[in-house]
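Regression test case RT-17, inverse folding.

Input:
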């Protein structure tokens, strides 16, 4: 098969949770550029509709907005069901929604710990399970879970030192490690059904969600701590997303693509 055909997503249907801004928006746009129809799901339904309108007009694809709170199991089930009902199929699921609570570990409440695991890990599991039922039947699917470099390296406690704020993100880091493990286990069990399950671990990206958390120390540090000499930009995740969404990755099973400018290489 021609290499260009391997990356072609025309006619495919991709669901992207949290695709209204930041990394999710970037990766959704990358798939739209290669012809994928999209379902953009978020709690911000109006913002979803605005993004869908832009992507549909710009790339000539169909983009549908759906309201989603990943802490509600029924919302996730309805998202997959309504996608299949609307398009007649679901080919790609990108579990992108996530969050963090920054606090000293000794002050972290158990309910906050559980909430982050529900937000990051349990929602990913439920999304995979619900989409998997359809994908197993069709013997085809691409699942992309969004982890983080913090899923396998420790965070620098100095990142928050000039703010006087708590400096630990234990629940976030642990949950992202769990996503990497979940991805590997699911991948080896589902490849027999023609379903490729892989993950992307972004490094330092300045987004709407992280902008307020970044300190001057962080920005200075990243200029020399990252071999590429900079933080990630609005285009740096598109390639990995399209690769894992397309048939170009059909021999990739349980892999974790690290996109961090070389940060974790040191």
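Golden output:
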């Amino acid at each position: 098969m021609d290499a260009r055909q391997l990356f072609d997503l025309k006619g495919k249907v991709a669901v992207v949770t949290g695709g209204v801004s930041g990394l999710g928006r970037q990766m959704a746009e990358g798939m739209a550029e290669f012809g994928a129809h999209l379902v953009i799901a978020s709690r911000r339904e109006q913002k979803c509709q605005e993004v869908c309108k832009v992507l549909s007009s710009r790339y000539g694809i169909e983009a549908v907005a759906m309201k989603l709170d990943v802490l509600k199991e029924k919302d996730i089930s309805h998202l997959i069901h309504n996608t299949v009902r609307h398009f007649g199929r679901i080919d790609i699921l990108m579990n992108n929604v996530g969050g963090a609570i920054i606090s000293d570990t000794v002050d972290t409440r158990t309910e906050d710990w559980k909430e982050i695991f529900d937000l990051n890990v349990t929602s990913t599991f439920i999304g995979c399970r619900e989409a998997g039922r359809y994908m197993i039947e069709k013997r085809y699917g691409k699942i992309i879970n969004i982890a983080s470099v913090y899923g396998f390296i420790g965070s620098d406690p100095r990142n928050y030192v000039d703010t006087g704020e708590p400096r630990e993100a234990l629940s976030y880091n642990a949950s992202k490690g769990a996503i990497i493990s979940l991805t590997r286990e699911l991948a080896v069990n589902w490849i027999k059904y023609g379903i490729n399950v892989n993950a992307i671990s972004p490094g330092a990206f300045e987004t709407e969600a992280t902008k307020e958390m970044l300190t001057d120390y962080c920005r200075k540090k990243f200029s020399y701590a990252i071999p590429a000499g900079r933080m990630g930009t609005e285009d740096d995740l598109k390639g990995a997303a399209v690769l894992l969404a397309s048939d170009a990755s059909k021999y990739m099973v349980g892999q974790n693509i690290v996109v961090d400018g070389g940060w974790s290489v040191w």
